[in-house]
């Protein structure tokens, strides 16, 4: 092989590229393979790096809820609750719920893009605990949910929202949301595996999430809705989640509501995590 | 280390009747391979022949529908984790995260092989240096050129030296200089003791790098051997001729075909003709006859068939399907 150097003569000892590669191969230390926790956190680190390099992905996640907060408060607030301020007090916990539930779909989008780009197979061929790629991705996603929650709360506070439940109530509400959405993400992983392209993932998730988050107690009290609609709203998981979170933020937490959400989270995880892992291992 | 596995000694890969079905399509349809340890083994075939599916099964990314495969003595289904600890994979279907920088990608992979934080960063530096990518270390991989991209992809597989490396079409779409670099890397890798399984659509690449070659077509191995054996199995030599005047090419081709009882191929080079000849002894006379007709030949060569011709002979069609440049002359 000929040696060609574009980057000028920076070394005195001129080695051919092949010799350099051979040297790099030779210095092959072979540490013990990492454990499941370590590899999961490394994959979560990757999710953080992606946020750093592609901050646009946070725009989707943050601009959308900010827009909703402002729009609903100032456009519909007066009509729905008498004044924008009163409506904000009612709607902000709901908007928080809606925001976090909505962005769970990015889990599907991320994994689907990984599959399409071939990154997925590279990571799957690594000698680490296999589910760590998924666990790491979900950890990263959970961080995104936390960031989005923070944005919504900041905007809310700036335009006058005050949580009767105080900092602790808000914190517990956010934790409850994160727990539920972590569970929900397993379901999105399955969508990510099954749907062919990232665009199709977007389409599917919009079809599911729009009705699910709007036909709930997020934007309006269910008592104002016709009976047939209420029948759905009352059992909509988003309503259940929203009521539990709203209770915490409004300083009237309902143990029953919270328990229902926790049971739902465990049940969703119990059903969909094994399914997602199965698909992940067998993915064609 | 567990007890000796039942595979034959010295084989890096051993498959028996390996099958993978997608829906109604048999992508891999009964592949038997016995690939020795050390050196480069080439898997040659056109697009869609089943090369990538075979590799994905061997690399434990895809379960076979039926049949068995042992990689470095371990069953790819039952002992997948042991296989993964000793093989590495590079190809269009196994790439790096485009959003991350080269350095971050390599650091991440080093972490996955158990390097501590500082050691992982150091290993990334070493690899970037070795693959002449120091200047691009802090750039996102999506901004890399094709050649750089392929180098960082390969570097990612060498965080620890694998015993077996799968390279899926490593030079597809590369310019000649980048291709030569990748070939250099493959040779360095073999020199360090790694067995390389390389798939390619390029006959020249298999000819250049591979010690042994399996030709795959429609999910089956249709021929196996060294490049020389494959050429010999076709059983005839190839005549390559260049004419002085491109306008006379068809006439020269017709005359040669007549005298040699062969099918001429008009190459993409407008002055070149090639044909397989069953009786090399008659070539001199045939060329003389061309001269007698007042036509000039500037160059001729009689040699072993190229792998392209081997493929044509084995399958009845050229390796590169839909290639519009080579056309058969209607006899």
Give the biggest sheet of chain A: none
**Content-based structural category of chain B:** alpha/beta
Approximately how much helix is present in the residues of chain B?
A: 25-40%
SSE-based structural type of chain A: mainly alpha
Please summarize the sheet with the most strands of chain B. 6 strands, mixed
Largest interface: A-B, 43 and 59 residues
The count of β-strands of chain B is 15
Please state the average pLDDT score of chain B: 86
| Uncertain spans of chain A | 1-12
Give the count of helical stretches of chain A.
12
- N-to-C CA distance of chain B: 64 Å
Give the ordered list of helices and strands of chain B. EEEHEEHEHHHEHEHEEHEHEEHEHE
What is the count of helical runs of chain B? Answer: 11
Write a structural description.
- The complex is a heterodimer of chains A (284) and B (331).
- Chain A is mainly alpha-helical and 284 residues long.
- Chain A has one domain (34-282).
- Helices cover 76% and strands 0% of the residues of chain A.
- Chain A contains 12 helices and no strands.
- Chain A has helices at residues 17-26, 36-53, 56-81, 84-103, 105-117, 119-124, 132-158, 166-194, 198-214, 227-235, 237-249, 255-282.
- The model of chain A is unreliable at 1-12 (pLDDT under 50).
- The longest helix of chain B is centred in the middle third of the chain and has 16 residues, at 176-191.
- Chain B has helices at 51-58, 80-84, 102-112, 117-130, 146-156, 176-191, 203-209, 227-234, 249-260, 283-292, 307-315, and strands spanning 11-22, 25-36, 40-44, 66-71, 74-75, 87-91, 164-168, 195-200, 212-217, 220-225, 237-243, 264-266, 272-277, 297-303, 327-328.
- With 331 residues, chain B is an alpha/beta fold.
- In chain B, strand 7 (164-168), helix 6 and strand 8 (195-200) form a beta-alpha-beta unit.
- In chain B, 34% of the residues lie in helices and 27% in strands.
- The relative contact order of chain B is 0.13.
- In chain B, the strands form 3 sheets. In chain B, strands 6-7-8-3-9-10 form a 6-stranded mixed β-sheet, sandwiched between helices. Chain B has a 5-stranded antiparallel β-sheet with strand order 14-11-13-12-15, with helices on one face. A 4-stranded antiparallel β-sheet of chain B has the order 2-1-4-5.
- The radius of gyration of chain B is 23 Å and the shape is globular.
- The chains are: A mainly alpha (284), B alpha/beta (331).
- Chains A and B meet through helix 1, helix 2 and helix 6 of A and strand 6, helix 3, helix 4 and helix 6 of B.
């Amino acid at each position: 092989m000929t040696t060609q150097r574009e980057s000028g003569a920076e070394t005195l000892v001129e080695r051919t590229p092949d010799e350099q590669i051979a040297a790099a191969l030779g210095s092959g230390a072979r540490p013990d393979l990492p454990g499941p926790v370590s590899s999961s956190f490394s994959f979560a680190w990757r999710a953080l790096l992606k946020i750093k390099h592609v901050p646009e992905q946070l725009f989707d996640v943050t601009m959308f809820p900010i827009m909703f907060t402002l729009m609903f408060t100032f456009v519909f607030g007066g009509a729905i609750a008498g004044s924008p301020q009163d409506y904000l007090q009612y709607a902000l916990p709901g908007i928080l719920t809606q925001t976090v539930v909505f962005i769970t779909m990015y889990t599907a989008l991320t994994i689907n893009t990984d599959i399409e780009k071939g990154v997925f197979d590279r990571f799957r061929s690594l000698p680490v605990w296999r589910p760590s790629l998924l666990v790491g991705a979900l950890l990263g996603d959970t961080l995104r949910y936390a960031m989005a929650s923070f944005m919504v709360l900041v905007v809310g506070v700036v335009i006058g929202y005050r949580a009767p439940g105080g900092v602790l109530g808000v914190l517990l509400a956010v934790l409850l949301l994160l727990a539920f959405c972590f569970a929900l993400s397993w379901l999105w992983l399955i969508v990510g595996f099954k749907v062919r392209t990232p665009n199709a993932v977007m389409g599917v998730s919009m079809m599911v999430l729009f009705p699910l988050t709007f036909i709930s107690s997020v934007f309006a009290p269910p008592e104002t809705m016709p009976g047939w609609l209420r029948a759905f709203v009352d059992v909509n998981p988003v309503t259940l989640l929203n009521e539990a979170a709203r209770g915490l933020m409004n300083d009237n937490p309902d143990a029953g509501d919270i328990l229902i959400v926790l049971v739902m989270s465990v049940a969703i995880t119990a059903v969909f995590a094994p399914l997602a892992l199965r698909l992940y291992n067998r993915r064609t | 280390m567990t007890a000796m596995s039942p595979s034959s000694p010295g084989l890096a890969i051993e498959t028996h009747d390996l099958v993978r079905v997608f829906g109604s399509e048999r992508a891999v349809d009964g592949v038997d391979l016995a690939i020795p340890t050390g050196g480069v083994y080439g898997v040659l075939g056109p697009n869609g022949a089943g090369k990538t599916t075979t590799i994905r099964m061997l690399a434990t990314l895809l379960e076979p529908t039926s049949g068995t495969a042992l990689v470095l003595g371990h069953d790819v289904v039952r002992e997948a984790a042991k296989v993964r600890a000793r093989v590495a994979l590079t190809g269009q279907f196994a790439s790096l995260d485009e959003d991350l920088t080269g350095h971050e990608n390599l650091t991440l992979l080093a972490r996955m092989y158990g390097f501590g934080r500082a050691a992982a960063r150091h290993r990334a530096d070493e690899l970037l240096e070795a693959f002449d990518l120091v200047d691009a270390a802090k750039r996102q991989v999506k901004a890399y050129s094709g050649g750089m991209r392929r180098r960082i992809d390969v570097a990612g597989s060498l965080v620890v030296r694998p015993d077996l490396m799968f390279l899926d079409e490593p030079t597809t779409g590369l310019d000649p200089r980048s291709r030569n670099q990748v070939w250099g890397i493959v040779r360095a890798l073999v020199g360090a003791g790694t067995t390389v399984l390389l798939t390619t659509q390029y006959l020249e690449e298999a000819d250049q790098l591979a010690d042994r070659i399996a030709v795959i077509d429609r999910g089956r191995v249709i021929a196996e051997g060294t490049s020389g054996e494959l050429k010999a199995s076709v059983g005839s030599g190839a005549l390559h001729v260049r004419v002085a005047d491109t306008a006379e090419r068809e006439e020269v081709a017709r005359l040669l075909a007549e005298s040699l009882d062969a099918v001429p191929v008009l190459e993409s080079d407008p002055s070149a003709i090639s044909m397989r000849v069953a009786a090399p002894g008659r070539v001199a006379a045939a060329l003389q006859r061309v001269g007698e007709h007042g036509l000039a030949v500037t160059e001729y060569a009689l040699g072993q068939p190229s792998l392209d011709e081997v493929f044509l002979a084995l399958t009845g069609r050229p390796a590169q399907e839909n290639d519009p440049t080579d056309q058969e002359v209607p006899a």
